[in-house]
Amino acid sequence: MFMSTPSTVVGPTTPPGIRRGEPAYRRAVLAVLAAGLATFNALYCTQAMLPTLVSDLGVNPTEAALTVSAATGTLALFIVPFSILSERFGRGRILVISALSATVVSLILPLAPSIGWLIALRALQGALIAGVPAVAMTWLSEELDPEALPKAMGIYVAGTSVGGLTGRLIPAAALEIADWRVALWATGGFAVLVGIAMAFLLPAQRRFKPKQIHVRGELSAMVNHWRNPRLATLFITAFLSMGCFVSLYNFLGFRMVHTFGLSEALVGLVFLMYLAGTWSSAQAGVLTSRTGNGLGMIIFALTMLVGLGIMCIPNLAMVLIGLFAFTAAFFGIHSTASSWVGLIATENRAEGSSMYLFCYYVGSSVVGAAAGLVFASLSWAGFIGCLALIVLLILGIAMYLAKRERSVAHQQVSMPEAEKLKARVH
Question: CA–CA separation, 345 vs 335, rounded Å?
Answer without folding.
Answer: 16
